[in-house]
Amino acid sequence: MSMNLEKYSEVELALLFAYDAELIERTKKLSRRYWSPQHRAWIVPYYKQSIHEMMEIFKGEEVIIASQLLQENELLGSWMQKNLVKANAKHNIKGESKKQPLVELFPGQGKKRHLTERTVQKVFEQAKARALVQKPVTVHSLRHSFATHLLEAGTDLRHIQELLGHQSSRTTDATRMSATNSAL
Q1: CA atoms of 16 and 2, how far apart (whole Å)
Q2: Which pLDDT tens digit goes with each residue over 2-38?
Q3: Is the dihedral of CA 18, 98, 119, 145 positive or negative?
Q4: For a tag on the chain, would you pick the N or C end, based on fewer CB atoms within 10 A?
Q5: Secondary structure E strands in the chain
Q6: H or E stretch including 86?
Q7: Which residues contact 109 (CB under 8 A, 6 or more apart)?
Q8: Is 79 within 8 Å of 59 (Cβ atoms)?
Q9: Nearest to residue 66, comparing CAs of 54, 80, 56, 45?
Q10: d(CA 150, CA 161)
Q11: DSSP symbol at 114
Q12: Tens-place pLDDT, residues 174-183
């Protein structure tokens, strides 16, 4: 289960993650935290003490830290390096601009290279052959399955849109309609 840590205001951070009872209980151990239904996020003070609490409570969890926070807070940078947490280059909770990622999600052989689309396709085709899958499926089918499972699990459509990188909500709505039709 991964969590996103983003800047909420000058004095608060937003902690976002999909529903997970264990993570919610751990989050409740943070002092001066509160739930923001509007943003569907836990809000915690942006203080050194709060960051230390998070580092202790979420030790071993995958935490994706907004690149803006990494640039302005040394302590978060050291947390990322120590625990191999990832940097998130997407916009923050208030919708600020996108930037290039600091860490590749799927790193390739070179330091600043990522896996190519063709490499992913080859690995998928090999796994499909080993699993003796006969149906005509592609890597893109996995995207649709992923989105459909998130939707069926109750994930907010806007969050799914962001995960899939869709600019328009109409594209994500097509996935929703497809999931609804397949359930009939």
Answers
A1: 9
A2: 788 888 888 999 998 888 888 889 999 999 999 988 8
A3: positive
A4: C
A5: 2-7, 12-16, 34-36, 41-45, 62-66, 86-88
A6: strand 86-88
A7: none
A8: no
A9: 80
A10: 11
A11: B
A12: 555 555 555 4
